[in-house]
């Protein structure tokens, strides 16, 4: 089985840090193999799983948007929790 070489330019800063830490702790060859397996599992898990919180927010807000009781302004909105309720507000402009 041929190994695909890692393209370091496509890795994020955090991924590079993880790879370098692995190289220091367990050696270059084993580290690259372990990192490649970790990266492959990370990509497959994030591609399949949707953001559960975003789905819940959409399910709660979509009926209000369709009934024209809620409009989302350009620039988005902020959600925060407060004493048993969710507060939806516009982001403060500079």
Number of helices: 3
Weakly predicted, low-confidence segments = none
Calculate the mean pLDDT score and round it: 81
If you compute it from the alpha carbons, what radius of gyration comes out, rounded to the nearest whole angstrom?
A: 21 Å
Number of domains: 2
Order of helices and strands: HHHEE
Model description:
The protein has helices at 13-26, 28-48, 52-66, and strands at 78-82, 85-89. The protein folds into two domains: 11-48, no CATH class; 52-89, no CATH class. The protein has 94 residues and is mainly alpha-helical. The radius of gyration is 21 Å and the shape is elongated. The mean pLDDT is 81. The chain has a two-stranded antiparallel ribbon. Helix 1 packs antiparallel against helix 2. The termini are far apart. It is built from three helices and two strands, in the order H-H-H-E-E.
How would you summarize the topology of this molecule?
Elements: H1 13-26, H2 28-48, H3 52-66, E1 78-82, E2 85-89
Antiparallel strand pairs: 1-2
């Amino acid at each position: 089985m041929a190994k695909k070489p890692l393209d370091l330019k496509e890795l994020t800063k955090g991924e590079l840090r993880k790879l370098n830490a692995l190289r220091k702790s367990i050696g270059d060859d084993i580290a690259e193999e372990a990192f490649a397996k970790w990266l492959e599992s990370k990509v497959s898990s994030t591609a399949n799983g949707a953001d559960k919180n975003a789905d819940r927010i959409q399910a709660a807000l979509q009926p209000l948007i369709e009934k024209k009781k809620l409009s989302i302004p350009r620039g988005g909105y902020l959600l925060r929790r407060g004493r048993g309720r969710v507060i939806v507000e516009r982001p403060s402009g500079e």
